[in-house]
Amino acid sequence: MNQSTFKELYLSQWPQLYGLALRILANEADAADAVQDVFGKLLEESGKLGEVESPKAYAATLTRRRCIDLLRRRTIRAAIPIDDAPPIVHECSETEQRSSAEYIRACIDSLPAGQATVMRLRAFAGLDNKEIADETGFSDETVRQQLSRARRKLKELLNRKK
Predict the structure, then answer these.
(1) pLDDT tens digits, residue range 29-61?
(2) Can you tell me the distance from the alpha carbon of 142 to that of 54, in angstroms, rounded to the nearest whole number?
(3) Burial of 37 by CB count in 10 Å (0-12 exposed, 13-18 middle, 19+ buried)?
């Protein structure tokens, strides 16, 4: 990729990439930094970009990945010492606990088969991703995706109960 092609890509794609980064990061300064980092990487790789089928799609992918990296680095720390924090445990009767456990099991049972299987193995058998993959024959990536989807769906179902 020559300098004029890079300039054209920069001018045409900066607004779209910035919008993408802003939707992901929800912070204007972080979004601008992420897009700047992406264009810096594109400039470094300009010799290889001739092999890329769609530079615009490649730039969007790099932006999305950069934003995810930034989100992973963000940490929120409690402002109070752990010893001073209020207890998290919600005290309830044994009947309420049993009812809640039954509801959670019913929610897990309502998940698609693959999600329900990996969630049961994780939650009730205490298996890690590798062990679940060995047990089910799924790939490690499939186990990770199924658990992620199952957790997201369970969160929705459990929030409806409130």
Answers:
(1) 889 999 999 988 888 887 776 787 888 888 899
(2) 28
(3) middle
